[in-house]
Amino acid sequence: MHSKGRILLIDDNPKNLQVLANLLNSNQYKVEVGVNGLDVFNWIDHEYFDLLLLDIMMPDINGFEVCKKIRSNKRFDNLPIIFISAKSDTLSMVEGFKLGGQDYITKPFNPSELLARVETHIALKKSKEELRSMNDTLEYKIKERTKELFTANQKLTELTETKDQFLKFISKEISSPLESIIKVIEVIKQSSESSKMAEMITLLDQSVLKLDRITKMASYITKIKTKYDSDQSTVFSILSTLDYILVNVSQELDKKNLEIDLDIDKNFRVNGNNELFKTSVLAILTVILQYIDNNQLIRIHSKLDNSSSNLIIESIINEETVSGTYIHEEVSLYTTYSQTIMALEGGSFSFSNENENKYEFIWTYKK
């Protein structure tokens, strides 16, 4: 027959022990008995119980003292104790609860009431044990998963560092010979008289320039990923920094006869990494300068309100003139690296191409 629980019954009156034991046994409980308070410790030190039914008035050590000693040992925190006693005064009941008892039943007791209370406290105990077991299992799984994620993150970090080192190496190794090739092509272009040769040189020139641009892009991305240091944050003016950036791309702007419409609020100041900001904006302009037609306008403006400030770089690029190129892929690649652009507090970066050939790069700074 399935047992509903294991109960330790302590009472110095043999008749009471017999009556209680018979009642509990007939209701599918397994019962062990003791005739004094010291018997409790002989049992619970070596055996498992779901409930302790404890008389109060006993020789040697009374029920209150037994309860107090049990509650001093964390091993038995989850063992429910029901006092069963002829003492029906309020002070005794309050004392029993203060010492850690879960319930108090007075003699003579009602069998149905006693069984109901026993069943309730054993059910509560088992529910607590199941919950504790579930928590332990969940905690173990979380620890194991954390270890797995930590290991995976370490491997990912190592791969990222290796990739960045490779990217930096390639950029450095390609840049120098590219500069030499570009200079040679410029000399050949000026001295070539054959239209066929001029066409071939133009094709070669375009390929080399594209390779040069990609090399610069790799360099920008590497800097964005490696230059971030929160300790380098400082308050700087967006307008002053943009003036510096535009000087650095002035030759490229002149080659295509591009006009810059710079409309930046002089009060647009942020707290962040100025060098990283320069690198990020230079990378954006590198994409635009590659694909924008000659004689076009690049608009750089700001939009400030009470909660945030926006820096918007927009241009019109006719995609029909750049068929076969990968502007979307290149922009997506860059924006992926720039989601944490400039690592400024509350900053975010987005790219928009909703209006046909109009491209917008928007950086938002939360105040």
From TrEMBL:
InterPro entries assigned to the protein according to its UniProt record, in alphabetical order: CheY-like_superfamily (IPR011006), HisK_dim/P_sf (IPR036097), Sig_transdc_resp-reg_receiver (IPR001789), WalR-like (IPR039420)
Keywords: DNA-binding, Kinase, Phosphoprotein, Transcription, Transcription regulation, Transferase, Two-component regulatory system
Molecular function as annotated in GO: kinase activity
SMART domains: REC
Domain Response regulatory: 6-122
Sites of 4-aspartylphosphate modification: D55
UniProt keyword annotation of Ribosomal protein present: no
Keyword Phosphoprotein: yes
Name of one Pfam family that matches: Response_reg
Protein name: Hybrid sensor histidine kinase/response regulator
